[in-house]
Amino acid sequence: MNQPRALRLGVAGPVGTGKSSILATLCRELAGELSMAVVTNDIYTDEDARFLRSAGVLPTERIRAVETGACPHTAIRDDVSANLDAVEDLEEAYGPLDLVLIESGGDNLTATFSPALADAQLFCIDVAGGGDVARKGGPGITGADLLIVNKTDLASYVEVDVPAMVADAEAARGGLPVLALSKKDPASIAELADWVRSLLVRHRSGTHIPTDPGPMAPHSHTHP
Description:
Facilitates the functional incorporation of the urease nickel metallocenter. This process requires GTP hydrolysis, probably effectuated by UreG. Helices cover about 35% and strands about 15% of the residues. It has helices at about 20-30, 45-55, 75-80, 80-95, 140-145, 155-160, 160-175, 185-205, and strands spanning about 5-10, 35-40, 65, 100-105, 120-125, 145-150, 180. Mean pLDDT is about 90; it is low at about 215-224. With about 220 residues, it is α/β, with parallel strands linked by helices.
């Protein structure tokens, strides 16, 4: 029986919420047991890819950068061809792979991946963005397969009640999972890694059905 293609897991969220750190954490936790690769997205740079390469979490050739040249959502939602090409090139060069992580460029609360690109997606917010972020909603917060409330170790410095923030997120998500995460908290890191392992089992068995959190809200951008 042929192994199914790699699970493609999208990671989205606003700028500064810790997406690259989450990717690095997942690579450190899982690369010893899974064959992995990473695709990062930035508008004009490969900064996130360089961060991951310098962290030594995967062989450098397994980390690819997509420079979108446009608003971050474009390459993960509207025209995913550049990302699909990068993923398929990695699978062809280093396959069979178990897991490909795809990091969105930093966008707003409405960013979501096309199901044509990601089999599942997690959305990242952080306590430094304010305790009311989860209540503001948006398709990433309400519909992603996993919502991460990140940087919980900073809560006391920014006067955020983490249990209240998590409760707000759970209320917004109708039973979908929420994880309070800190890179300084081994228990939360283990919980994240176990969630990915469980998702991979469902992907391999064919019982995971990719769902679309919903299109981004109508919006426009002004470019110089």
